[in-house]
Write a structure and sequence with these properties.
single chain; about 350 residues; alpha/beta; Rossmann fold; 7-stranded parallel β-sheet; about 45% helix; binds nicotinamide-adenine-dinucleotide; binds 2'deoxy-thymidine-5'-diphospho-alpha-D-glucose
Length: about 350
Amino acid sequence: MKKILITGGAGFIGSHVVRLLVNKYSQYHIFNLDKLTYAGNLENLSDVDDAINYTFIKGDITDEEFVNSLFKKHKFDSVIHLAAESHVDRSITDPLAFAKTNILGTMVLLNSFKSLWQNKWEGKLFYHVSTDEVYGTLGETGLFTETTSYDPNSPYSASKASSDHFVRAYGETFGLPYVISNCSNNYGANQFPEKLIPLFINNILNNKSLPVYGDGKYTRDWLYVVDHAIAIDIIFHKAKLGETYNIGGFNEWQNIDLIRLLCEQIDEKLNRKEGQSEKLITYVKDRPGHDLRYAIDASKINKELGWSPSVTFEEGLSKTIDWYLENEEWMKRIISGEYVDYYKNQYK
Ligand code: NAD
Ligand code: DAU
């Protein structure tokens, strides 16, 4: 039985990847290593946690001794590495935490993988999950391709860029078999309500103001999280070693237009008066170093591996709102505790 280590599997994207692989591949044993930071939530995986091909391990990827002993004990054939500090605003408040987890944590995993297999690389793979933010910002035109130069602007994207460089360096220097994907903004069920879409859904449902940074004209390329998980599965199985794949939805939205669509869909679902939720929009101080626009050219993964998004944005957003409406308890448990202080500090 192949043993696959997924890091960060209790987080937003990680939980969708774990669910997909556990259900689809009975011939794999999936190990989920997660520190359960504020962003990790085992409730995200309650439907698979007693599957016989699944094991959860609580632990920190920056803990070298612990990670080494885990690799020696389980002899993981492959790693799908998602664990990270992932929120740009938090990286502005506490950059060091991002360097530690995203750079050091990635290096600890690379070292353990390298020491375990000692050049016997047949059938082994280190898959590093990264972001389009490493490319920096686009102007009003153009798309990020796999050959766009790295030009990160936030401590978060700088730490992810650095981790990408280390993965490639281990490939070049030690022959470690790797693949990297750089994806655009994800949305969907189980996303922590610090990110735009779940934060705004929660605020609309609670009639709280919607804090739009700057003029709201920043642009992101949105992808439904299940489609990202499917892309990861395909890349894991079909990618050429040492390659990079950009993943995106060909789905650009200016924040303000997306927020208006979100308000409209929620008003309709809740039979609220037309235009009611839009009144909650409040323009607030901009994010420092705010990247103007991200947009992915996903033609490589489409042409070489046959992947393309399965849902339109309107469908994906509607499913996402329905999930949050049906899982109010999930949200309630999250927005008590640490979240209260985070919200006060971020939006004071
Ligand atoms: P998330 O913040 O929801 O989840 C991160 C998970 O990592 C959490 O479960 C957390 O507990 C765990 N973790 C954090 N530090 C850890 C440590 N030191 N040791 C072990 N576990 C630790 O993040 P996400 O949005 O699901 O993103 C997952 C990955 O995908 C990240 O690498 C991120 O950079 C990348 N990515 C995210 C997006 C997006 O839109 N969210 C887009 C492209 C790429
Ligand atoms: O592009 C991929 C990246 O997308 C991932 O690597 C990151 O992990 C993920 O967090 C996301 O980064 P963004 O900074 O683009 O996502 P966020 O949801 O924080 O913000 C989306 C846009 O909305 C951005 O232009 C900032 C704006 N925004 C965000 C928040 C939280 C607001 O206007 N108000 C807000 O309160």
